[in-house]
Amino acid sequence: MRPAAVRPYLTALATVAALAVVPAGRAAAASPHLRDVCGTPKPGFARCLAQVRTDLHAGKGVRGPHAATAAQAALPPGYGPAELRAAYGLPAAGGTGQTVAVVEAGDAAQAEADLAVYRTTFGLPACTTANGCFRKVNQRGAGAPLPPDQGWSTETALDLDAASALCPSCHLLLVEADQAAGDTLAASVDTAAALGATEISNSYTAAESGPNASYADHYTHPGVAVVASSGDAGYGIPGVPAAYSSVLAVGGTTLTRDPGTARGWSESAWQGAGSGCSAWVDKPAWQHDPNCPGRTVADVSMVADPDTGLAVYTTDGTGGTDPGWSVVGGTSASAPLVAAVIALAGHPARFPDASALYAATAGLTDVTTGSNVQGTDCGGDYQCTAGPGYDSPTGNGTPDGLGAF
User: In 10 A of CB 288, how many CB atoms?
Assistant: First the structure.
């Protein structure tokens, strides 16, 4: 979408004043055992969307069959690669030649070392600078100088671990913006594409606005699939970059084991999953939902509920995270998971936008239960309530194998 094509919709703008009680991406009411990794951003800045559980922690070091001692033989709490592959019917192999980039604000000094602990714990192949699998750069594409810590280290660990879980053969590119401003994050996306990323994951959001709409072109790169979290504030004002028409907007679900079903798992819309009707971005030709005149968020979804979150390892305690193993969620988890699924399938050029997911006739599990109402209600409409077919909290559904990708 070009800036010239951006226009406000009077219908959507009429709802903005009523909805503007929660900053984009911020939950209206957090559970006592959950903590937002990133605090409230400065005006015009983005915030990361990771949420960490404070009631589960498994200490430091390698766990599982590769642990150094018998006392560490149990895997850490939270979903790991095996559970995620089983839940979504995904193969363990694939992704050769793909590079998943994650865009973050500030330096995560221990990112590579922490990633090594995660991958060793779950028996994944090493992904290091030395073997060419891992690369960390600043927003200009250089290995130094790296920006100062912005408190996003847990977010960075979540993104790298999630991508590793589903695409262990993928290369990983960590691009660290100078700060969480719209221009620096947009420049980092351009850098990721210039350095050969085939999928770019963005687990952050900022409120829609005229200035933020001008960054849309930076999230458009032919041959590269760009995905972004839909936010963790439930139904309301959608954020960017998820609302850009070239981006796959990723909502979130609650994923639970369900032995009584053929799948063995069940999903419902996560209460925090961001959804909404854009006041600034034109409705894409491939999107046909009836009650939003602009771009509707989201397009697709995967697990995001921190209560059914991912095992994540980070030794950086910024963001209120105890060093070591934690359970982390938010749509910060679902975005890199979707990026990894696209990489696993190996066809990023199919996704200059989300249109392929709206045309898919198979390969997606329809999520039909749950709601993301957190104070502002849509009256049971699809924009805040999951049901058969497309709905805003979960989009067109969740991956069922690689058929839709």
Answer: 10
